[in-house]
Amino acid sequence: MPDLVITNAKIVLGEEVIRGSLSVKDGRIDAFDLGNVSRGEDFGGDYLIPGLVELHTDHFENHYRPRPGVTWNATAALQAHDAQVAGAGITTVFDAVRIGSDPEIGDITEDVAAQVGAIEAASSEGRLRAEHLVHLRCELPMPDCYDHFAAHCAQPVVKLASMMDHTPGARQFTTIEHYVAYYQKRLRLSDAEMAAFIRGRQAEQERYSDINRQAILARGREVGLAFASHDDATVAHVEEALGDGVVIAEFPTTLDAAKAAHAGGLAVLMGAPNVVRGGSHNGNISASELAREGVLDVLSSDYVPFALMLAGFLLPEQVEGVTLPDAIRTVTANPARAAKLDDRGEIAMGKRADLVRVRQMNGTPVVRGVWRQGERVS
């Protein structure tokens, strides 16, 4: 007998939406058909979509460090994050853990170990609703970036690393004025102190960035990690990423960079909050514009877990020609494929039964049930 039977559902497949039923056996999709059956869980016409796949979220870090100078029990923080993630319909999540100490915080060596260790332990202990993997966010200009990377990159839960550079005047912060507007008030620095801070960051980039990138790429290839570029602003940035063998282009800041990345075979990833808000909070290219140009592949919740589900349903309303199956692929099949997780991300025979029941209510989706490998988790 099937472990789970769902009926009277609008099932979102890769290219179409059908009204019908689905059955699950041994944690995998066993069958799905047009029409309804007389038994099972009646969805009452709600949508059935694949479990969402999240490649880059800082949300765990926000729970771990809820206030400046305050760190929380890492396992408890992870469980709080996990409950929100699963409740948002995310069944696979790559928790982004910063690598390379933060000038705002200081040495984060112990914090990195606490977060990666909590994910590995909690996963093995069966504490978590979603499946949690680790994405190492490598801040290349930081002196201890490679040391942190080397200490954790071979752990089984680590699957992805991104090459990041938030130096003033580079990539995301293409102008010094942009950087000052974003950071000076946060850092509580005078104009003179801010100028000195910027000079320090630029000197670190000059000294460490290229060395760290090459060392991280070499070691990462040895342990089989996938790599992402980050905040590509120019075609030259994309060409560097292609030369490095990355597979994902995270948050390109210009249309030219996004087009070059897509043409080069990289999965172009943008923030779901960008879709929800109608544009970038930094004034960079909008995700919806990339969708109109046909170069948006993946959405990431980034800092608000539910943004992923919301954007999946908003995108067809914002961009002519984007269907609901198209939009749902950006939060399910496409990120799964980019991360080489070929067993999930779509409703198809033999795939993992990571499933979400969703009802559209007044323009905002409501998650009404979540299953991971056929087991109800939310």
Distance linking N and C termini? 23 Å
Number of strands: 16
Number of domains: 1
- At the third CATH level, what is the topology name? TIM Barrel
Explain this structure to me?
The protein has 378 residues and is an alpha/beta fold. The chain has a single domain, classed as TIM Barrel. The protein is 38% helix and 26% strand. It has 13 helices and 16 strands. The chain has helices at residues 59-64, 74-87, 109-124, 145-152, 176-187, 191-223, 235-244, 255-263, 272-277, 287-292, 307-318, 324-329, 333-338; strands at 4-12, 17-25, 28-34, 41-42, 47-50, 52-57, 90-99, 131-139, 158-164, 226-230, 248-250, 267-271, 298-300, 355-361, 364-372, 375-376. Strands 1, 2, 3, 4, 5, 14, 15 and 16 form an 8-stranded mixed sheet that branches. Strands 6-7-8-9-10-11-12-13 form an 8-stranded parallel sheet. α2 (74-87) crosses α3. The longest helix is centred in the middle third of the chain and has 33 residues, at 191-223. The radius of gyration is 21 Å and the shape is globular. The two termini are 23 Å apart.
